[in-house]
Amino acid sequence: MNDQLKPSLTDLVQNSVVQERVAEVVAEYRSFHAGEVEGRQANYARMINDYYDLVTDFYEFGWGHSFHFAPRFKGEAFEASLRRHQLHLADVLGLKAGMRVLDVGCGIGGPMRNIARDFGATIIGVNNNDYQIRRGQRHNQAAALGGQCSFLKADFMALPLPDDSLDAVYAIEATCHAPDKRRLFRELFRVMKPGMDFAGYEWCLTPKYEGDNPAHHSIKKGIEAGAALPDIAREDEVVNALRDAGFEIMEARDYAASADRGRPWWLSLSGSFLHNGFKRSPEGRWLTRKLVRLLETVRVAPRGSTAVATFLEAGARALVAGGKSGIFTPMFFFHARKPPT
User: Fold this and answer.
1) pTM above 0.85, yes or no
2) N or C end of the chain, less CB within 10 A?
3) Which residues contact 258 (CB under 8 A, 6 or more apart)?
4) How far apart are CA 60 and CA 129, in angstroms?
5) Pair 335, 197: CB distance under 8 Å
6) Which of 20, 36, 38, 173 is catalytic?
7) Do 139 and 2 touch, CB atoms closer than 8 A?
8) What is the pLDDT of residues 140-183, one digit of tens each?
9) Dist CA 81 CA 298 (whole Å)
10) Rounded distance, CA 256 to CA 220, Å?
């Protein structure tokens, strides 16, 4: 990461939202999760934009350029595990120079820059958040990848792209934000060329999830509130939505369940800072929240900043609980194909 572009502690929520509105945006975001799933689905674009306006600097401060999870092999660095996880999708899709590829919900573009460097494809990152796009464009320029990686500001539910125009599509823990997976997958199907592939990692409830179990329900709600999700689908619901959209299923399985070596994905949120880096550890998140509170108290950070750190911390605890119990996975892998004509 270019240290000159890296957010510092005093940058958190300073640049994405007008300071006087931070508390107001926090209150609006929380109101979506105080209501029912139908309200979150109807207002998904506003909810997700509120969320990423508030949390992008926190994510980049603690996580780097790639906002997702990955299982880690023993002895593997955290950043290396993320890169390996990304490049696996590119390998599955057979990406190469000359291909025009869509990154669905690309964040600030960390994965697309890694994939573009290693595979040579031209990648369009679709994102509906202005602040993340501004951050990502600066990173593209710093990496000298502005000609190979670009951002498209759009709602991925209604893409301003021609039919049959893309050589491949991938999504890394982003389609979980969609209010209707069938509708999203139909839209992606539309813009893909016949015979081309779509692969990704999806946040899912596993077969171990029991809807009538209060503890399971509480974990699910905690994950939704901590990550701006309208709802969380079951694994079979994702597969059925892909089929209903017209895709052929090449492979679908939970990579978290099949990981038989190394460290589980949730250890990046619960393990010792000696293994994960201080900022990502429970101790690091606790200290960050305390320092943000101090900065807010002395009016260096805007009012509402501590609330952002607090709901992110609560979301992290819910994710760890979901991972440890086995009722949730952020890496249900799917590989689907648009049939050739």
Assistant:
1) yes
2) C
3) none
4) 15
5) yes
6) 173
7) yes
8) 999 999 999 999 999 999 999 999 999 999 999 999 999 999 99
9) 38
10) 17
